[in-house]
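Lab meeting, item 3. Inverse folding demo.
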């Protein structure tokens, strides 16, 4: 049995969606998986015949009786995702796992109408890899029928860097687009908020320091200098999605070795509490007060706990676990 995993290419180098799929596929490759590149392109330009020919080429290395992981969405369009699963479902004895990174009808309100199509796609899989238990239960409410599933819990962030120990600095880091988050544009604290994103469209408070977009290694090195990684949003829809998804920036902060501050409604906040990796806060004001008053000794204790936990993320163990469990779910009737 050969194992395969799809991987998105063709997005801008700033695309978190593409970086997450590449990182996942790279970890899978260490386990013996073959990468199946899926490029972003204008699917609507293809005729039905051209699309069939394109898919024949993409999946030419996949054989009967193999195991394939489809990282969804492909970020082309839903019709393309649908065409992939329909094609592969016709392969005799092929086992298919769908690795759900995001659910577009839940992620973006205007895409809510796509939910029946996405459920149809998911129901054609043998096993699902879902970000959280809450996401699986939400999809069940929408008509999901697949009983075999694996829960991811956290994004890995593989790195191979020799980082210095973070210094005790009373500051926040935010790896997100400052133009999309009002809390950053209206920052009300004397503590610095260092933002890693494209240039702001409006003037920002003096304590918001724009650092520009940084590629992965540069970002990790800057985060590792010290402070707290912040996961936050003030948009109701994003906060609802936080309950279902797992955010990539959380793994990035922990890979850099710094403690984090997250909202209590974040899906995997229990990992932060159980492993003493930072603060789970009920409000931004609570978070700011916590950072303003934490002692150097308490900060160092958090850094020690992060250092103990971070190999799970930097060495790809979450991804390795879900891929291994997905294979067992497909092949072992006890699973």
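The presenter then showed the designed sequence:
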């Amino acid at each position: 049995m050969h194992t395969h995993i799809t991987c998105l290419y063709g997005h801008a180098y700033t695309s978190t969606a593409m970086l997450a799929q590449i990182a996942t596929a790279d970890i899978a490759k260490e386990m013996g998986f073959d990468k199946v590149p899926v490029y972003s392109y204008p699917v609507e330009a293809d005729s039905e015949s051209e699309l069939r020919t394109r898919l024949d080429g993409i999946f030419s290395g996949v054989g009967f009786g193999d195991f394939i992981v489809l990282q969804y969405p492909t970020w082309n369009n839903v019709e393309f995702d649908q065409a992939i699963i329909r094609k592969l479902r016709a392969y005799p004895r092929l086992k298919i796992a769908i690795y759900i990174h995001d659910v577009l009808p839940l992620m973006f309100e205007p895409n809510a109408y796509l939910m029946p199509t996405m459920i149809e796609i998911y129901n054609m899989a043998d096993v699902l890899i879902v970000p959280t238990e809450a996401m699986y239960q939400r999809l069940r409410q929408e008509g999901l029928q697949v009983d075999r599933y694996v829960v991811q819990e956290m994004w890995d962030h593989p790195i191979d860097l020799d980082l210095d120990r973070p210094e005790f600095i009373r500051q926040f880091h935010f790896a997100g687009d400052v133009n999309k988050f009002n809390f950053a544009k209206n920052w009300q604290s004397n503590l610095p908020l260092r933002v890693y994103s494209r240039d702001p469209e409006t003037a920002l408070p003096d304590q918001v320091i724009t650092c520009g977009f940084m590629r992965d290694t540069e970002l990790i090195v800057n985060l590792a200098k010290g402070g707290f990684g912040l996961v936050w949003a003030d948009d109701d829809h994003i906060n609802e999605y936080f309950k279902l998804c797992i955010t990539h920036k959380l793994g990035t902060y922990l890979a850099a070795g710094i403690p984090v501050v997250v909202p209590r409604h974040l899906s995997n906040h229990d990992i932060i509490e159980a492993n003493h990796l930072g603060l789970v806060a009920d409000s931004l004001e609570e978070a700011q007060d916590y950072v303003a008053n934490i002692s150097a000794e308490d900060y160092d204790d958090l850094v020690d706990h992060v250092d103990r936990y971070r190999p799970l993320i930097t060495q790809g163990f979450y991804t390795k676990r879900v891929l291994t469990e997905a294979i067992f779910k497909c092949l072992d009737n006890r699973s």
